[in-house]
Design brief:
mainly beta, seven-stranded antiparallel sheet, 3 helices
Length: 330
């Protein structure tokens, strides 16, 4: 029996198997998914004394979506007063947009592929007993071989001229939930999501004398940025004697580029509240809010980044083929 011939034949098959495995791994399905949901219900502003009224209020809602290779979608925006609905039409780009309903602030079906969508709205008057509802979602999913990117985002902003009939403490109060999800299929793919909420009261030209003495350089005297830390809070100048009642952070970023480590931060509705640690004098102020969500995903060609197992097979195959070549008779 020719041992050298058998060994050469066996190692030749091993090299071919490794090469085939490398090619097969290069055809593995790549993909990435990202979801950012940011929702507030019964959002209200109250004062501890006297009356609080509003004038000159406006709200702006806008959203956008980008999907490489998809139909271009121009950003859309609406602007409304305090009591009207600021409901911007959902935007979606990519082949999986069919069947995604307007104002659907939940993960899309997993069978929906190749899309990026953004949607946002503000319903109701934020200064009534019922309060306002503010929602925003950014979602993107890609499942393909080859370089691809998708982004989705939206913003909700607004301002209200507040007038206090007498000096009083100001309280922000609302129910809120968040849903952040990121996952990738292949090493090298990336998924990042983020949400942000900021509320503040600032001085304006009609504010009481001395308002700016409490304010920062931007004229803000009272700010609430829900961050899950009860020691952070009410006075922009750093006085935290009251603190915030926020059970988790609404302002965060999550991401992954590891197929084995998807990230999820999901909470049901919980109560958020913050009261100023000083009484605002009677007079006029401006309340501002800003809310946003964003999703960014990148899918690369798996052939560009071989997985560890693929690298092992490639090394084994090359070594086997080299050994076979050396053992062939001259």
């Amino acid at each position: 029996m020719n041992i050298d011939h058998t060994r050469s034949k066996t190692l030749g098959w091993l090299g071919a198997l490794a090469a085939a495995s490398l090619l097969a791994s290069g055809q593995a399905q790549a993909g990435a998914y990202g979801l950012a949901v940011n929702e507030l219900n019964t959002f209200r502003i109250t004062t501890s004394a006297g009356a609080l009224s509003l004038a000159g209020a406006n709200r702006n809602a806008s959203d956008s979506a980008f999907f490489e290779g998809g139909v271009a979608v121009n950003p859309r925006a609406v602007n409304t007063g305090p009591a009207a609905n600021a409901d911007v039409l959902q935007v979606c780009s990519g082949g999986g947009c069919s069947g995604l309903p307007q104002n659907n602030y939940a993960p899309s079906p997993s069978s929906t592929l190749e899309f990026a969508r953004g949607d946002a709205h503000a319903f109701g008057n934020m200064l009534t007993a019922a309060g306002s509802t503010v929602r925003a979602v950014a979602e993107a999913q890609r499942d393909t071989v080859g370089a691809a990117t998708a982004t989705a985002g939206d913003t909700l902003t607004g301002s209200v001229n507040l007038t206090l009939s007498s000096a009083g403490f100001i309280t922000f109060n609302f129910m809120a939930r968040r849903d952040l999800r990121t996952s990738v299929t292949t090493m090298g793919d990336k998924s990042n999501v983020s949400i942000m909420d900021i509320f503040n009261i600032s001085c304006n030209t009609s504010s009481p004398v001395g308002c700016l003495s409490r304010a920062n350089a931007d004229g803000v005297i009272f700010q609430f940025a829900p961050d899950g830390d009860a020691s952070n809070g009410s006075d922009i100048n750093g006085n935290h004697t009251v603190g915030s009642l926020d059970p988790f952070s609404l302002n965060m970023t999550a991401g992954t580029n590891d197929p084995a480590t998807g990230r999820t931060f999901t909470n049901g509705f919980a109560m958020f509240s913050l009261t100023s640690n000083f009484a605002l004098p009677a007079g006029s102020y401006t309340m501002n809010f800003s809310k946003s969500t964003r999703t960014d995903i990148v899918v690369i060609d798996p052939l560009q980044v071989p997985e560890p197992g693929t690298l092992f097979l490639l090394g084994t195959g090359l070594a086997a083929l080299a050994f076979t070549r050396r053992r062939q008779p001259t």
